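# nightly structure sweep
# worker-07 picked up a monomer target from the shared queue
# config: single-sequence mode, recycle default, output format = structure tokens
# input follows
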Amino acid sequence: MAVSVGDLLVNIKSDTTQLISGFNKAEAAVNKTTKQMSYAVKGLIGAFVGLNTLDIAKNFTKQLDLITSANNKLKLVTKTTEEFTNAQKELFRVAQITSSGYTETVDLYSKLSESMLKMGKSQSDVFRTVETVNKAIALSGTTAEGASAAILQLGQSFGSGLLQGDELKSINENAQGLSKAIAEGMGVAVGELKQLGADGKITSQILADALAKVSGSVDSNYSKMEKTISQSSTNISNAIQKIIGDFDKMTGASKNVASIFNDISKYLESINSENIQAIAD
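# output follows
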């Protein structure tokens, strides 16, 4: 049946009204949550770190996404609410004492957890290994990019069951402190790791055991380090993320905003492309 241009305009106007309404709701929700967050956070840390309301508002949704992603990763590798809550608490503690990013620490835990638990290790063992790896990487003095590369390769090694080839090469290049810790835990020289890896003799079980053996000496060496400004800033960032995460848990801000954005996408999908083409013609 033919549809008049007038009818098409009425339909599109209706859709557009809904769309604008959706954007208005989204804007109101974001403004409300960021305003509340401004009051909560600014009073605690704003004066100290030089944040203003606009800075907080700009980073609020970004931090929410980071926290949500981290929580989603934890949910995949924990079986109960108690395990999940304990993981959040312990990984924040580990991140703070090692001056490592909380989301990066969660990422490392998620990469090691499944493999280590299958070995018969406990959740506490995984936390301790994550702490040792974070400290060993810090001792390397590597960049954030280098640390991320090393963590990625270590995680892949635990997943595949072997540390060898490109994974081992990346760790040697980007995190010498971690290579040294692995070698020390295995009772070999760093230079021997390449051949041991090629021979398939650095299994995930051996890795886990080596890191456990060397945890004490890594702790000792790490305690002698002077914390850098960058590391101190990371601790502050972690604390801000925790406040935002707690705030979101209490208010459900991220779920509310995500729901509104989902409604907007549905409004956009409901606009018929054939109708738009008819008007264009």
